[in-house]
Each structure stands twice: as C-alpha cells, then as structure tokens.
Design a protein that fits this description.
It is a single chain. It is globular and about 60 Å long. Helix 11 packs antiparallel against helix 15. It has a two-stranded parallel ribbon. Strands 3-4 form a two-stranded antiparallel ribbon. The chain is built from 20 helices and four strands.
Length: 447
C-alpha cells in the first residue's frame, strides 16, 4: 500500500500512531528480499566449487567468472537506488525480486560439463541483479527510520542481506556432501525467489513522499564526502563481498582443498561477518561511526598481516583463522561506515541552520541519493579483490602478492578516516552519528 504521511522523527507518530510497527514490518520483509538477492549474487562462489576438470576451466577463469558477477552487481546499484522513488519501495522490491528468476533459471538450464565458457559468463553476469537489491533495499529502509535508529536498522537490513552469502554456501556444502549436483542448489533457490516476491507484494509498503530528487543527486555527486565514504566502503563492504566470492577458490587453488573441504570452511567467515554487521551499526550509534571505523581498519590491517604470514608459510590453520577474523572485521566496518552516511548529511543540515524535522528531511534527501553511489563504488572493491587474486596466482602462484596490496590499502583507509573525520580540535556532532561528540575537522566540505 502507499503511505501518504510519514514522519518518523515525530516521537508521537513513531510510538503512538504505529510508525515504528510499520517500519519494522517493512524492515523484516526487506531483509528477506535482500537476503535472497545476496544468495543469488554470490551463486557463482558456489557453482565454481562444482566445476571440476571436466568443465575445462582453470582457476584464473573461475576467478574471472565471480569477478564479473561482482562487477554487474556494483553497476546496477545506481539505477536500483533511484528505482525506489520512481516505482515505490514495495513495487520495486517485487520487481527486483522477480528479476532474480533470470539468473537462477538460466543457470539451471546450462549448468553441466560441455557448456561453453561464454555461456557460463553470461549466467554469471545475470546474477549481478542480486547485488542491486542491496542499494534499493537500503534506500527504502533509510526512509522508514528516524536518524536515532538508522545505525541499527540499516545494519540489521544489510546484515540480514549479507547473510545470504554464507547461507547459499551452506546449501552448496550440503549438496556437495550429499553428492548432489549444482542443479540441486538452483532448484532450492527458484522457489525461494518466488516466496520473496509474494511476501514483498503482500506485506510491504511504499512511502508517497519519497521522490527522486535530481537536485539531491547533483548535490550528493558534488559533495566530497560521498566519494570519501565510497572509498571507505570499498575497504569494508568491498572486502566482505570480494573475500566471500574468492575464499573457496583460494582454499582450492593455494592449499589444495577438495570442493567438499573448501565448502566446509568457506561459509564461516561470511556468516560471522554478516551477523556482526548490526553490531557495527549499534557501536557507531553509541560511540561514533568514525571512531569505530578507524579502529576497525587498524584491526583489518593487523589481520591481513597475519594472512600474509600464513600465506608465505602455507599454514592452513593460521590462514583460515586470520581470514575469519578479517571477515568479522569487514562486517563491523560495514555497519559503522553506513551509519556515518546519514550522520554526515544531518550534520550538514544543522550547519546550514536547519533543525528538527526540516534538518532530518534534508539529511534523508541527500543520504538517500548518496547511498546508491556509495554502495555501487563499494561493491567494486569485490571486483578489485578477485582480479588482484587472479593476477597474483597467475604471476607468483599464490595469493600473497594480493594480500600485501590489501594490507597497504587498509593503511590508506585508516589514514583517510583519521584525517577527514577525527583530526583537529573542533568537537562537533558529525559523521560519527547523531548524539555523539567526536573530534572532527572537515577542511574542504562543511559537515
């Protein structure tokens, strides 16, 4: 249904007039749809485990397959973001969920030895539509919740979606363990796609006041913080999705694990990283997104350093342990960085002299426009990770070179977070999130 009046910052509307109940209902079914979307997007991280020598595809070819799925998922996030305002949150969720039938049915028809690599590539590209669901879902849920609860709500929405990655990998593990084929995995997901379509149509709503605002888009594009946050999101979400797609292949290629042995380990990191994401959002709500993000990048650098050591020593236990820790940290960082986005634009509104619902409306307007761009650029980090690993294996026969590059990147992310959002003596309520004072000096953009 269409909701004509929506004022989540009004405490009476939120608590006494049913606003909170409606928002939470939409959040629940948004999570379901996004969850299935992530599972479909990461489908080829499972399909490649089934592709033995009889398929005639080497490790570099498999890395390229999952890279292309990542690429399309990143690109479609931009139009998916603006589709919510064009069609309504409920209507677009129905459309987006229905589109997931394209890659699942296509793969079901062709998944067998003898199929050309080009055909597999087309199917992998089609799974990218699942990545777009994140952008539309986050934009939609951002409109439903007040600023004081956005960190929790966006973290839960994204975490519930992210967990689709380990779930499809668990399904793959079960099927491999039962000596089933890849079509069994696809046969499980096609009905689940239909369930998500039905639930979105039956239980979700659209907010009529949400409209595409070309002025907001232009303002978001011009704002330096949109691109700074996109860069930081490459480090958090880009790492999460890139590692999720690549981990099983690394275990097979570098450590000689069988498909079953790889599948037994592949899901653990994405599962923990998904579950911890709402915690990252909640920590950002309480202690400031910038502070949590900086500490998180430092910890990611430390974990990556251990991964490098394990890769050089070819120590599988150390490698798996450090990689799982890295997954957990990507999840925390996902929650904290996404919380920073509405906080940045709310603070900009306050610096312009706005207050109350007027400031909140300004913040929602610009943060909604920025989220699609940030999500799209962030997802490209997954493409970079898989291409870097592909090149590293082709050049030196292991992933060590790529891991060293990732370590350097996290150091840069730490420096950017500190320099832009924590450096200086001015204490203001900024990107750290509403209600939290942090040191910040934004030298080239008023926030």
């Amino acid at each position: 249904m269409w909701i004509e009046r929506w004022e989540p910052e009004d405490e009476r509307f939120w608590k006494e007039e049913g606003g909170e109940r409606v928002a939470r209902r939409n959040l629940a079914f948004s999570v379901l749809s996004e969850h299935i979307g992530f599972s479909v997007w990461s489908l080829w991280s499972v399909m490649v485990l089934f592709m033995g020598p009889e398929y005639g595809i080497d490790p570099a070819g498999k890395f390229f397959l999952v890279s292309m799925a990542t690429l399309v998922g990143a690109v479609v996030r931009v139009p998916y973001t603006f589709a919510v305002a064009r069609f309504g949150g409920r209507n677009w969720t129905v459309i987006a969920a229905s589109l997931l039938l394209l890659p699942t049915v296509a793969a079901f028809l062709v998944m067998e030895p003898g199929t050309s690599y080009t055909t597999f590539m087309v199917c992998a590209l089609l799974t990218g539509v699942g990545g777009g669901n994140f952008a539309s879902s986050m934009t939609n849920i951002n409109s439903f919740f007040p600023l004081r609860e956005k960190g929790w709500a966006l973290g839960l929405n994204a975490g519930g979606g992210n967990i689709g990655v380990p779930v499809v990998q668990l399904v793959g593990l079960a099927v491999i363990g039962a000596s089933g084929g890849p079509r069994v995995v696809l046969g499980i997901y096609i009905p689940l796609v239909l369930v998500s379509v039905f639930c979105a149509a039956r239980y979700m709503d659209s907010i009529s006041s949400v409209r595409n605002d070309t002025g907001a888009v232009r303002a978001a594009v011009r704002d330096a913080h949109t691109w700074i946050m996109a860069f930081l999101y490459v480090g958090t979400f880009g790492s999460f999705i890139g590692y999720s797609f690549a981990f099983g292949l690394v275990l097979q290629t570098q450590f000689g694990r069988t498909p079953l042995e790889a599948a037994q380990l592949t899901f653990i990191g994405p599962l923990l990283g998904s579950l911890i994401r709402p915690v990252g959002g909640r920590l950002a709500d309480r202690h400031g997104g910038a502070r949590i993000t900086l500490a998180n990048f430092a910890a990611m650098g430390a974990a990556t350093g251990v991964v490098v050591i394990a890769s050089v020593k070819e120590s599988l236990p150390l490698f798996v342990g450090a990689f799982i820790a890295l997954f957990v940290l990507t999840g925390l960082g996902n929650g904290s960085t996404y919380k920073m986005i509405p906080g940045i634009f709310q603070a900009k509104a306050e610096r312009k002299g706005l207050a109350g619902e007027e400031a909140a409306a300004y913040g929602r307007r610009l943060s909604g426009a920025a989220m699609g761009l940030i999500g799209a650029v962030g997802a490209l980090g997954g493409l970079g990770i898989n291409l870097a690993l592909r090149q590293s294996f082709q050049t030196v026969g292991s992933g060590t070179g790529a891991f060293v590059a990732f370590l350097g990147f996290y150091a840069v992310c730490s420096g950017v977070t500190w320099a832009v959002y924590l450096r200086g003596k001015a204490v203001r309520r900024t990107a750290a999130g509403a209600g939290t004072d942090v040191k910040s000096q934004l030298s080239y953009a008023e926030v």
